[in-house]
Amino acid sequence: MSVTFTAPQFSTARRAPARAEVVAHGITTDRLAGDEPLPPGLDRADLGRLGFEAKAGQVQVVPVEGRLVAAVGLGGADDLSTDGLRRAAAALARAVRSRRSLATDLASVVAGADGPVESDGVAAVVEGLTLALYRFGYQSTGSRKGGADRLARVSLVGSTAAGVRASVERAEAVAAGVVLARDLVNEPGGSLTPPKFANRVRRMARERGLTVKVMDEAAIRRARLGGLLGVNRGSTQPPRFVELTYTPKGRPKGTLALVGKGLTFDAGGLSIKSGQGMMDMKMDMGGAAAVVGAMSALPDVAPRCRVRAYLPMTDNMLGGDATRPGDVLTIRNGKTIEVLNTDAEGRLVLADALSLASEAKPDAVVDLATLTGACMVALGPKIGGLMGRGDGFLEQVERASSNTGERVWRLPLPDDYRSMVDSPVADMKNIGGAYGGAITAGLILGEFVPDGLDWAHLDIAGPAFADADDAEVVRGGTGFGVRLLVDLAASFTA
Questions:
Q1: CA 405, CA 18: separation in Å to the nearest integer?
Q2: Do the Cβ atoms of 70 and 23 come closer than 8 Å?
Q3: pLDDT above 90 covers what percent of the chain?
Q4: Alpha carbons 350 and 310: distance in angstroms, whole number
Q5: What is residue 160's predicted lDDT score, i.e. its pLDDT?
Q6: Residues 169, 251, 298: CA angle, nearest 5 degrees
């Protein structure tokens, strides 16, 4: 049985509740070096002897009159950012995770004790505290490292205004979406099969009031999703294709389509991966998981646009009828792809999904996929690659990235690179040459999005899965893309 993560419950308060086991104060280097009195329980000389310098992410906990007081370093006041607050909150969470209750002024520290609480700061603190506490595993009770986390209640000190509470509730919904995405990515491919994945999404949709449609294998054949069927040929697990729809109250202000790659496990097909390369391939549905997590948060965030999601689900295995190198697949929109490497399968299932999404005539479409190792070579493990068409829309995606701290970097899609995927027997082949693999994959996907439709492709092969804890990120599935997609939907303009 997997460890079930329960997020702490957040409330707002003017001052720290008497019952709080830990009271935490954000301290900038400027304040530590100045003459302004520190919060009760904190002494400059004592903090200095303990080595506390208010560096970003530094946490020092001291006992004071029967409870604990924590000093949380924020670095220089001029350098403090929303992302810095998120990281500071994550460091605090790890320092006090064994305690039952916490009160902190981190969300209001920028504005000052008597000033307004910025909604972005509230979101950053809620996200940082919640996501740094996240756990997933199958350890028995006696063998769990570090024991059970106890932090159950967090009071955000500074303001009880209705707007602040609304910001807290929205941030809790977004954090819950990230947790859902992480759980999906972390679940082994042998237990999260395509049918079970689809059923999980169906249950979430019904609980959250989303419209849901699940296609089984027969319906997928009727829909002519040749890429998805081709990848699925080597599997004993039947494929699924899930569509979700969020509809706002009142007249929708545009329609945004989200497409997520849902490869529940990727062995590479007949172009088999190495043992090392296969170890983390339960994460190859990170794009679909991010879309599911984002969709789960939308009813609470309440964007004014309609949002539709398209999720192709299969694994990529080596059965006796697996697609062979040299086979040609026909995609939903009629275009053909020569498969020369069965491990370049994500673009095949996304081709069908993008075709379906485009047929519904949205105002813009975003696809997310753990697509290429080439993108990781270019950008490393923490930054996603952004490609697409429509500069105005791509700028909206970049703003959402900046707002949420989920970093992306725009890569080109040059027309003259298209010849790298020319095929003598089909409209295109599924791989390019030795170089520019992220770009050629993007160019293939662009063949299934009509000219004139705004489109963003996010290659999240790097940031979807982490090898170690870092700030709010916990080893394993990160849920990368959930916060970005929610922010994009909330601010989307057609």
A1: 34
A2: yes
A3: 90
A4: 9
A5: 86
A6: 25
Q: Residue 262, SS3? A: strand
Per-residue pLDDT reduced to its tens digit, 415-466: 999 999 999 999 999 999 999 999 999 999 999 999 999 999 999 999 999 9
Instruction: Give the active site residue among 100, 153, 165, 273.
Output: 273
In the block, which residue shows the tokens 């693999």? 437
Containing H/E element for 487?
helix 482-491
pLDDT at 3: 66
Q: Which residue has the tokens 């370093």?
A: 73
Give the residues across from 63 on adjacent strands: 68
Q: Could you tell me if 73 and 25 are in contact, meaning their C-beta atoms sit under 8 angstroms apart?
A: no
- Give pLDDT < 70 ranges for the chain: 1-3, 110-118, 140-149
Query: Any alpha helices (H) in 320-468, and if so which ranges?
Result: 346-359, 373-379, 391-404, 437-446
Report H helices in 284-406.
286-301, 346-359, 373-379, 391-404
The answer to whether 100 is a known catalytic residue is no
Supply the pLDDT for residue 108: 84
Where are the domains positioned within the chain?
Answer: 9-156, 178-491
Find the catalytic residue in 347, 389, 407, 483. 347
**What pLDDT is recorded for position 148?**
54
Name beta bridge partners: 386. 410, 458
β-sheet bridge partners, residue 62? 69
Extract the tokens encoding 223. Answer: 């829909």
**Is 347 among the residues known to form the active site?**
yes
pTM score, whole prediction: 0.95
103 is written with which tokens? Answer: 């009160």
Residue 279 in tokens: 């170890």
Q: Three-state DSSP class for 324? A: coil
178-491: what CATH class?
A: alpha beta
The fold adopted by the segment(s) 9-156 is Leucine Aminopeptidase, subunit E; domain 1 (3.40.220)
Using CA atoms, how far apart are residues 168 and 129, in angstroms rounded to an integer?
A: 12
Q: What are the Cα distances from residue 475, in Å, to 51, 282, 387, 487?
A: 28, 14, 27, 24
Q: Which CA distances in Å does 113 have to 40, 72, 108, 352, 434?
A: 14, 16, 6, 53, 57
Residue 143 confidence (pLDDT): 54
Average predicted confidence (pLDDT) for the chain: 94
E strand or H helix that includes residue 153: strand 153-157
SS3 state at 433: coil
Q: How far apart are CA 107 and CA 105, in angstroms?
A: 6
pLDDT value for 79: 87
In whole angstroms, what is the distance from residue 321 CA to residue 333 CA? 24
